[in-house]
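QA checklist item 7 of 12: single-chain prediction sanity check.
[x] sequence parsed
[x] length recorded as 371
[x] structure emitted
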Amino acid sequence: MKTVFNYTKFNNDTRDTLVESFIALANSFIDGKQNTAEYSTLNKQFNEDFMKECVTAIPNTEFSGTDMLKDPMVHNDMFFLHRFNTILAQMITPVVPTVVASGFENLYDVTQVGFGDNAKYTVESNEMFIVSDNAMGIARGGVQTTYNTEYTVKASKKEVACYVDWYHVAAGKQDWGKFGVKIGLAYSAYIEGKVVKAMESSIVAPIVDAQGISGYVANGMSDNNWIVTARNVQLANGGSEVYALGTKLALANALPAWSAGIGTEFRYDENSAIVKKGFLPEYKGVPLVELGNALVPNTINGTPQTIVSDEIIYMLPMGMYKPVKVVFEGNTLTVEKNPLEMADHTYCMNVNLMVGVDVVVGSKYGAIILP
């Protein structure tokens, strides 16, 4: 589990236990255990405990079972809905980072700021002082200085509109693990898409002096482009080790070329890493790391499109500045009522997240654009 930002505990054992149970349900769903008896029992118990905690917020009302949720006097009560929104926001908050695709943490840094604040990043100059020839009796030139530049990334409001059916909840059929994961996946796909688009834009059409230090870009996969790009990234970052990052399809292009005039090619057996993983673990001294992918949400039921391009291999220095910055404002999501979209016995809500994504490059990186 990758922790991106924290949620605020209630300092109330019952509500904190609900948050922990919700996270356990979401993790079980991610692990493919949603069809097990254990998951079903946990979900049913969570559903009852959650509704009981919300009902007890209504003055002079005792919880008598989830059938109470069918009563509009219960599920429309402002005290009930206020507690429902508050607890749900805290439950969903830590689920979002659990569904971020693997490898993305190599592309971006995460910063959490307070509400109303912006994140500030300082890009240190990578220029070196120049050694000049001199002689006795000759006046020295001006003092050489290096300038650092500051960049800011501002978070803005993003939302997911969704709903629950109170009859479904009353019957114990609401799958809360799936509900949390789907919201997490929606935000995950959005953040991943913004990260990739920001990175691609800095490669294809960089904004001069607005996104930090530009990268080294080579067109076409060849041994020369691979070795030269890796060498340049390494030397520009003080000799730091370099690794290549890309999707499985992109990394599969890192293969030895045919031996000219001999008619032989790179050979491997059924036990080799490329057969098992789809790409080499290392090529020409550069380790290869797979970048996870995801489908664009509105293409799932049509012609599927992936968020991450299969036509770019990134080369990044180990332990240096990551090129993309993701900023979360505040430490929780918020849930608010959406009365305009509600039908009978349903509750429509907007799950809001303050997030900002931009490119701030502090270390030279490389990219190979595949044909």
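[x] summary fact logged: Residues 1-6, 259-263 have pLDDT under 50 and may be disordered.
[ ] second reviewer sign-off
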